[in-house]
Amino acid sequence: MITAAPSPIQPAALQPPRWQHAWREAVRDPGELLSLLGLDGLAAKVSAEAAAQFPLRVPRGFIARMRHGDPDDPLLRQVLPLDDEMRRVPGFGLDAVGDSAARAGTGVIQKYQGRSLLVTTGSCAVHCRYCFRRHFPYAEETAARDGWHEAIALIRADSSIDEVLLSGGDPLSLATSKLAELTDALASVPHLKRLRVHSRLPVVLPERVDDALVDWLAALPWPVAFVIHANHANEFDASVDAALSRLRQAGVQLLNQAVLLRGVNDTVSALADLSERSFAAGVLPYYLHQLDRVAGVAHFEVDDTRALALHAALAARLSGYLVPRLVREVPGDTGKRPL
Ligand SMILES: *Cc1c(COP(=O)(O)O)cnc(C)c1O
Ligand code: SF4
Hints:
Layout: H1 18-24, H2 30-36, H3 48-53, H4 60-63, H5 74-79, E1 103-105, E2 108-109, E3 115-119, H6 149-157, E4 163-167, H7 176-186, E5 194-198, H8 201-204, H9 211-218, E6 224-229, H10 238-249, E7 253-259, H11 268-280, E8 284-289, H12 304-317, E9 325-328, E10 337-338
Parallel strand pairs: 3-4, 4-5, 5-6, 6-7, 7-8, 8-9
Antiparallel strand pairs: 1-2, 2-3, 9-10
Helix pairs in contact: 11-12
Bound molecules: pyridoxal-5'-phosphate (PLP) and iron/sulfur cluster.
Pyridoxal-5'-phosphate (PLP) is lined by residues 109, 111-112, 115, 117, 165, 335-336.
């Protein structure tokens, strides 16, 4: 028998950060996910084809927030590949938001005045079934690929850009040192006034908010807007609260964007709970998005009439600052379009 030589004990600084361990431990097998939840009977509705197209991926901490034995759990619905995804529905295509047309350079998408969005990486810690990026070749199209050179050059050359958005994939799936490499280079661009981070990781993998990340954020030379992505109040627990509290201590402004999803959060009480729970964690609601119409997500769609009625009922019930803006992304528009 051949045995691997024991690896020498590494000094702490050389060990991968702890969050990467939680990342690697994510569940990728639908059968394992269902059996963890006592839902083996649901296996017949899982689509191997959908899972091959966009694999299941879900961190164990997020699974722990799902209700055992509930096939309709709102967190489970967001990650489980079902047969419904393979139905072809007219109007649901491959690039619903016009990202291909708005590409300014490798991993740089510029749609709106003053804002440049960087696709920093193609990877995410969780794969959300409704994601509009499920068909876009983001993995080959990242701004990090050439050491950020093209992205920095484009931003430097356009003095109308005063805000850079780090998006993806999930920007926090990059190592903090890689993010620091980017912001160190951006710090020499005189016209930048704000930085924005769009990440679902504080919710799905709160381990990611470690000392190194907080130190990096706290030292940035610009005010930072940090937009998390939670669709349901059950996505919050003590570990998420702690991660968000640390982000706030780093001085960032926390906002939440959610997607309106049939069977997940399409009731007034689910949306009100989400706003209230977000605020309790120090996060202000920002956007409630109408779904981007990409192939495979039609079963999540809420029609505009119902979406508007839900939003009106929400506004009638909550404090004004707890009501997110209901928007949709329309290719060619100058910003997200209010419904
Ligand atoms: C959504 C989006 C933004 C940000 O829009 P805000 O309304 O400022 O949140 C910027 N760039 C791109 C390409 C976007 O899709
Ligand atoms: S975290 Fe965001 S980008 Fe990643 S799969 Fe989910 S919705 Fe898509």
